[in-house]
Amino acid sequence: MLLQRRQVAVAAGAGGSYCPARPHSTSRTSRLLVAAAAAVTARRPLSNGLSLVSPVAFSPSLSRLSSSCKPQQLQQRRNRRSVHTQAFDSGTALGVALFFTPSILAVIYAYFKGKGNISDGLSRMLTEFSQGYFQPDVGGKNIPVAQGELSDLAGDEPLFKALYQWFIESGGVYKLEFGPKAFIVISDPVVVRYLLKENAFNYDKGVLAEILEPIMGKGLIPADLDTWRVRRRAIVPAFHKAYYEAMVAMFMRCSERSCDKLRNAIAASSDGSAVVNMEAEFLNLGLDIIGLGVFNYEFGSITTESPVIKAVYGVLKEAEHRSTFYIPYWNVPLLRAIVPRQRAFAADIKVINECLDGLILQARAVSEQLDEEVLQNRDYSKLSDPSLLRFLVDMRGADPDDKQLRDDLMTMLIAGHETTAAVLTWALFCVVQNPQVEARLLAEIDAVIGDRDPGLEDIKALAYTRATLAESLRLYPQPPLLIRRALSEDTLPPGLNGDPNGYPIGKGADLFISVWNLHHSPHLWKEPELFRPERFEEVHTNDAFGGKWAGYQPEAGRGALYPNEVASDFAFIPFGGGARKCVGDQFALFEATVALAMLLRRFTFRLAVPAEQVGMATGATIHTANGMMMRVTPRQAAAGQQQQQQQEAATATV
Ligand code: HEM
């Protein structure tokens, strides 16, 4: 059993929340586990000592699930558990007892070690155990070391906040050392540019790939470099203008369904308003959109529940669990077979795979009937299935097998669902708390689309709406950390203020690019904590760095509609950058622009709870801790409509 993958726990959050169907609270114990993961990162098999900590006794996911899922889901889960329990025979029971008894002893040991505080005890215990077990430090010798205790990572705040504090104290490149193991945290745009663009192929996705491989197979995110090159070349052309035009129409239809749902909720209320968890609504919307856009599958999750939807959420939840749990017990075949959540995971994967296989089969059958000319000149405005899947099977030269296609689809389903939902969630959160931004947004939306159905051209005119989404992605980047591992020795550039000799690092060094730190950096942004979309309209340079960093220059963004890493010289990287940049960035931003515009022109949203109660919990994306409860009321006649009404009234009078 290898523990090296546990470092993703820190990377993932910075936490690890894929589960969309529930609020995302993170207990102190689970944070400790994440912190502990950092301590036990290793490439050598684990001694028996560390497996003393029980996966079940300390499972953050289990404790969070039971406290946060819908009663119906909980009941189903309980039922499932009881069926599994009955299936245990006595041999299995003995195996389980043998496995868990040491865990209980570990808890007792940690209790005394931590003088009554189990978290502290575990932290110390794991740090001690880690001594001597793991490979020598592969981090550069001259990298500043952040001062702190492992248990500092186990505080009440999300973990990326701890990484931010160390960035402020230790600089844009620093090292966290736990025993002989180190993590290098990068928050400097020059070093980030080097890692993502200038020497991108010396790095792979390390533990992230290991976690995601059982789910995404050889999809773009976890794929080995050879597979990645072939598939990236096949997938990128699928995102073309005609596709986007078809997609924008679909975004509009799906957003209209969300509007209908809100209208119904309001109609059913007694006071003309409804309190709605907008995070959950955006997740439903995001799932429906990604299903239609990627493989022309109607999840219909805005209005219904289905086994496939449950399976998708189940898989997302398991990805979260794996990214926060530091013992990869799911790699042990016996445990995979007997642990209920692992069996449920296998069942969920099967449901999704069967669904995707059916869709691939169908797409292939349709494609084979079409001749080359029709394929070359297909008219997207008339296609009943304009999805990426159809494009990929129609690309006959590329000829991926069904398994590869399925991996591609699964990857895009997971990469594109929660991320986009999270952008909408936090954008709305920011907008409703900034009346001036809200007023300017509404004026723009009314003027550009009014009551019409928005199209691709309208997005180009919604400049302030686009800047608003970018600004919320700056404050709430999804994900807050990117993960890399060095494939061979390298020397990181000194960056803005680092050692002029640079930082030599060894093969296997683990790096976390802190998108959160970059986006919140007081060195790179004026008043970084302010929500101010206008900043993306302004040129901002900083002479203090002697020309090493170009600052933010809208014109440098290669004519892109949305602010990007090029315009900001890698200070703003919501979609990464360089060769591994997100393939779905435009898809996601168009989707968010259409959805936000359509919702805001119809409804007024106000937080139904104090802002601090919303909370933050993190994983692959930043979630709320307690849902985004908003009071929704029909918007008073939009300004455009009001104007029109006034004009009509005036004409009538004349
Ligand atoms: C607002 C929504 C989204 C955000 C914030 C986002 C963010 C990112 C980021 C930061 C990366 C780079 C990861 C790294 O360098 O380690 C990435 C990669 C990726 N994203 Fe997205 N993404 C979003 C939506 C989407 C959508 C809608 C799709 C698919 C339709 C998608 C598909 C992918 C894929 C396939 C990759 C891997 C690319 C590669 O390695 O070549 N993403 N995304």
TrEMBL record:
Residues 636-654 have a biased composition (Low complexity). It comes from the Eukaryota. Keywords: Heme, Iron, Membrane, Metal-binding, Monooxygenase, Oxidoreductase, Transmembrane, Transmembrane helix. Residues 634-654 are annotated as: Disordered. The chain crosses the membrane at residues 87-112. InterPro entries: Cyt_P450, Cyt_P450_CS, Cyt_P450_E_grp-I, Cyt_P450_sf, Cytochrome_P450_Monoox. GO terms for molecular function: heme binding; iron ion binding; monooxygenase activity; oxidoreductase activity, acting on paired donors, with incorporation or reduction of molecular oxygen. Gene3D superfamilies: Cytochrome P450. The keyword ATP-binding does not apply. Heme binds at residue 582. Pfam families: p450. Its cofactor is heme. Belongs to the cytochrome P450 family. This is Cytochrome P450. It comes from Tetradesmus obliquus.
